[in-house]
């Protein structure tokens, strides 16, 4: 095929955008990202011994020692002064423009958890695709929520910053011509839940990389929309939602978009005296399923419908961590508690916090996960039913078997997180830039590490694997550890075809659900277990595959999937943006892409 001129490429890009953007809107946002030391979701004061007789104060890291009492000086990352950040409220195929001003004292990027960035990994906002926004500078992300609907969230992707905040919800609504498979709710609530260090994120980061092999990390608290647990003695402010009962016989229905924006804990979500109707997860409408409680793993998002059909009163909203001996006492620490408040209620919440399933019952969790199926008859971003796209007769062209684990660097050294015993080392030059300008030369070597077995003793390097464009990838994720892991693939929604305990073997394929597996972008892997997904690699680019548990990701449990289409037609993959940032070995290079 003859090469295209910049002018021809520009015409193709414009035509592609016009077709994709029919009836779409432009959304322009300006974000000022800064640190706030006045927002302490949980107050922390710890008495210490002090021998001096006079009052004095000293700063050590993020701690203020004042007359024998430690006061935590926490730094919360805010957007436009808000924590959590503002909602991105879009409709299928809308164009989103976000001008990010970095007022932090370190580089910054945002990634858009579950937004597929069709043909455009240039906007993915991770270290392998973008140069960071330097302190005091700004940069504009521009992307289309192409052919997607559903509930997602964003967060800062560099330097352990997610532990400091900076996250917020993303809604992608259906176009009006495509019906939603449930009646319009009375209201729509975003509920971001996650565990939170009662400590400055920079100090926790320092403990991981410079401390002992197994650092004694600070305790965690479960926050709801950035607020501490109800009736916890350390909580500054708690989260509540007000609903109206309406007709007592049926009640009004409300949509809760629940996301686990936490650092390491899966949680069980429930509302006192109310049942949950599961209707959507990460852009897929599910077979509607009524549950008393729902397990939500790190990085996952769900929509549940809740009907206000109980007595006028206040009710507990609870998120309790999995694999943790947390009591139902809100003062116990890692127990998230908010309130569902009926309009007109004069009855305070009463009784104990409702119990959920045993946090150690992995059989309950895996059976619930298997029961979450794709709604084959509902339309989503497109008018044709979701079931038009299925995996019942696909031919797998690649299989990756990836083991998430830990490995220690020498006797008493730092414990790294690994994939097949490789701990990812972030190069100074983003992989996507190196790919475009030099075919990766000097930055990474494609397929240097095995994607099907261990790579021997601990190795550290730039792990990039080749994905076959428009081929089906079977991705088997295994977990050697005693905690629940959670994996995410940028650029795609994958079909979750199987879960299991023990070792995965070829015979495990006989247990796969190939009829109606749900499509999502983040999936859990149970302790000493495996999870299998299918992904159709029709989205060329450089895509991050990572553990969603922040410590694991930060310490190296990630790799990149390079899906390459040699056709230079920008309708197949977008050219670099005109405002592309250059860094690393390309810092002084003249930009040769089209404007």
From TrEMBL:
<comment type="similarity">
    <text>Belongs to the multicopper oxidase family.</text>
</comment>
<dbReference type="GO" id="GO:0005886">
    <property type="term" value="C:plasma membrane"/>
</dbReference>
<keyword id="KW-0325">Glycoprotein</keyword>
<dbReference type="InterPro" id="IPR011706">
    <property type="entry name" value="Cu-oxidase_C"/>
</dbReference>
<keyword id="KW-0732">Signal</keyword>
<dbReference type="InterPro" id="IPR008972">
    <property type="entry name" value="Cupredoxin"/>
</dbReference>
<dbReference type="Pfam" id="PF07732">
    <property type="entry name" value="Cu-oxidase_3"/>
</dbReference>
<dbReference type="Pfam" id="PF00394">
    <property type="entry name" value="Cu-oxidase"/>
</dbReference>
<dbReference type="GO" id="GO:0016491">
    <property type="term" value="F:oxidoreductase activity"/>
</dbReference>
<dbReference type="InterPro" id="IPR045087">
    <property type="entry name" value="Cu-oxidase_fam"/>
</dbReference>
<dbReference type="InterPro" id="IPR001117">
    <property type="entry name" value="Cu-oxidase_2nd"/>
</dbReference>
<dbReference type="InterPro" id="IPR011707">
    <property type="entry name" value="Cu-oxidase-like_N"/>
</dbReference>
<dbReference type="GO" id="GO:0005507">
    <property type="term" value="F:copper ion binding"/>
</dbReference>
<feature type="domain" description="Plastocyanin-like">
    <location>
        <begin position="440"/>
        <end position="566"/>
    </location>
</feature>
<dbReference type="Pfam" id="PF07731">
    <property type="entry name" value="Cu-oxidase_2"/>
</dbReference>
<feature type="domain" description="Plastocyanin-like">
    <location>
        <begin position="191"/>
        <end position="345"/>
    </location>
</feature>
<feature type="domain" description="Plastocyanin-like">
    <location>
        <begin position="74"/>
        <end position="175"/>
    </location>
</feature>
<feature type="signal peptide">
    <location>
        <begin position="1"/>
        <end position="24"/>
    </location>
</feature>
<protein>
    <recommendedName>
        <fullName>Monocopper oxidase-like protein SKU5</fullName>
    </recommendedName>
</protein>
């Amino acid at each position: 095929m003859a090469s295209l001129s910049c002018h021809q490429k520009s015409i193709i890009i414009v035509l592609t955008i016009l077709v994709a953007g029919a009836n779409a809107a432009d959304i322009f946002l300006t974000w000022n990202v800064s640190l706030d030391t006045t927002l302490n979701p949980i107050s922390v004061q710890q008495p210490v011994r002090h021998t001096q007789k006079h009052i004095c104060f000293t700063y050590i890291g993020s701690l203020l020692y004042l007359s024998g009492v430690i006061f935590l000086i926490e730094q919360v990352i805010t957007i436009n002064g808000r924590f959590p950040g503002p909602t991105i409220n879009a409709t299928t195929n809308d164009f989103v423009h976000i001008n990010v001003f970095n007022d932090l004292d370190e580089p910054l990027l945002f990634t858009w958890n579950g937004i597929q960035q069709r043909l455009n990994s240039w906007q993915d906002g991770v270290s392998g695709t973008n140069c960071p926004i330097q302190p005091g500078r700004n940069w504009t992300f521009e992307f289309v929520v192409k052919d997607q609907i559903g509930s997602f969230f964003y967060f800062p992707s560099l330097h352990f910053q997610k532990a400091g905040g900076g996250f917020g919800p993303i809604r992608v609504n259906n176009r009006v011509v495509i019906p939603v498979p449930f009646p319009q709710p009375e209201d729509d609530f975003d509920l971001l839940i996650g565990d939170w260090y009662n400590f400055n994120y920079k100090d926790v980061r320092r403990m991981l990389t410079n401390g002992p092999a197994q650092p004694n990390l600070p305790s965690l608290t479960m926050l709801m929309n950035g607020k501490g647990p109800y009736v916890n003695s350390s909580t500054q402010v708690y989260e509540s939602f007000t609903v109206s009962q309406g007709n007592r016989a049926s009640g009004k229905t409300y949509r809760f978009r629940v996301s686990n924006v936490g650092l390491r804990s899966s949680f069980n979500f429930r509302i006192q005296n109310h049942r949950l109707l599961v209707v959507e997860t990460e852009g897929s409408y599910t077979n509607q399923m009524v549950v008393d409680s729902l397990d939500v793993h790190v990085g996952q998002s769900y929509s549940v419908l809740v009907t206000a059909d109980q007595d006028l009163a206040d009710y507990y909203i609870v998120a309790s961590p999995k694999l943790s001996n947390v009591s139902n006492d809100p003062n116990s620490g890692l127990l998230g508690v908010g309130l569902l408040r009926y309009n007109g209620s004069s009855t305070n919440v009463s009784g104990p916090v409702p119990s959920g399933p045993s946090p150690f019952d992995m059989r309950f969790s895996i059976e619930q996960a298997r029961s979450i199926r794709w709604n084959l008859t509902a339309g989503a971003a497109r008018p044709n039913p979701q079931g038009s796209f299925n995996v019942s007769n696909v031919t797998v062209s690649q299989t990756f078997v990836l083991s998430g684990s830990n490995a220690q660097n020498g006797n008493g050294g730092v414990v790294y997180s690994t994939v097949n015993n490789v701990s990812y080392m972030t190069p100074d030059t983003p992989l996507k830039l190196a790919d475009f300008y030099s075919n990766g030369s000097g930055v990474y070597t494609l397929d240097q590490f095995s994607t099907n077995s261990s790579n021997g003793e601990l190795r550290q390097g730039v792990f990039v694997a080749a994905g076959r464009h428009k081929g089906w990838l079977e991705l088997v994720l295994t977990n050697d550890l005693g905690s629940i892991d959670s994996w995410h693939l940028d650029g795609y929604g994958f079909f979750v075809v199987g879960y299991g305990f023990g070792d995965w073997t070829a015979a495990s394929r006989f247990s796969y659900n190939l009829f109606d597996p749900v499509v999502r972008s983040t999936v859990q892997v149970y302790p000493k277990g495996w999870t299998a997904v299918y992904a159709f690699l029709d989205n060329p680019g450089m895509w991050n595959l990572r553990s969603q548990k922040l410590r694991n990701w930060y310490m190296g449990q990630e790799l990149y999937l390079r899906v390459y289409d040699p056709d230079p037609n920008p309708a197949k993959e977008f050219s670099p943006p005109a405002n592309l940032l250059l860094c690393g070995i390309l810092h002084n290079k003249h930009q040769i892409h089209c404007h």
